[in-house]
């Protein structure tokens, strides 16, 4: 633990006691319900506070990690050192005419619902994606034929120095499930989407259809990180895993879903070590059987526990 009462006091000065937690279990903040403790878990409420926290971490040489809403993430059992920042309190969504501005801590699902309420089309594909707006930009999230780069026009970010930048979508190098946001160390604060006027009933019908497909095919009854692997060229990850007879395969409390082979679920109080071990086992088995290397879509961060 980076202990330091001094760090704690500085963080409280920037934000408030309500927004700084010490030794906070990260399993409380991830969809997989996995992860050890964060030294300092901070939830800023303004863009200026985000900038000040980044500058503090730089000045004091403290490790700094941005945690989204934890939907596409595995945190290891040893937790994360230093300052962990979560932007869930930056969550406003506003639509004016066909332009929507959504803060990064808002859920992308809620952005799609707001678009429906305003009779705007373009974000239907996101109605079942569990991540935050910031996370959606980070990985150019997509589903059912749509992706963030189809509708994003610009974003406001904080860079590694704590400076505020406005970038066009083209400057993010958005590709299949990737962007240059992690490489540049950007912290997304808000996204501007360009949508189109549409018909409420038609938009809702598409969203209802996509929601039905998701709920009927995905194992939403257990904690998971969503789709674990990227789609390999020419294949479907779930089909390869299924054809490797891995559905139901379990390591500790982690299981390859019997409902959708592309998902690994936390069926019975799994540890991150068990969950990650099962990911590696699936990759190894599919490689041996089909000579296809499955690439992870989910991020793994944090420390291994001390043995």
From TrEMBL:
Residues forming the FAD-binding PCMH-type domain are 34-198
Q: Which reaction does it catalyse?
A: UDP-N-acetyl-alpha-D-muramate + NADP(+) = UDP-N-acetyl-3-O-(1-carboxyvinyl)-alpha-D-glucosamine + NADPH + H(+)
Q: Which UniProt keywords apply?
A: Cell cycle, Cell division, Cell shape, Cell wall biogenesis/degradation, Cytoplasm, FAD, Flavoprotein, NADP, Oxidoreductase, Peptidoglycan synthesis
A Pfam family: FAD_binding_4
List the pathway annotation. Cell wall biogenesis; peptidoglycan biosynthesis
Q: What is its EC number?
A: 1.3.1.98
* PANTHER family linked: UDP-N-ACETYLENOLPYRUVOYLGLUCOSAMINE REDUCTASE (PTHR21071:SF4)
Q: Which family does it belong to?
A: Belongs to the MurB family.
What functional role does this protein have?
Cell wall formation.
> What name goes with this protein?
UDP-N-acetylenolpyruvoylglucosamine reductase
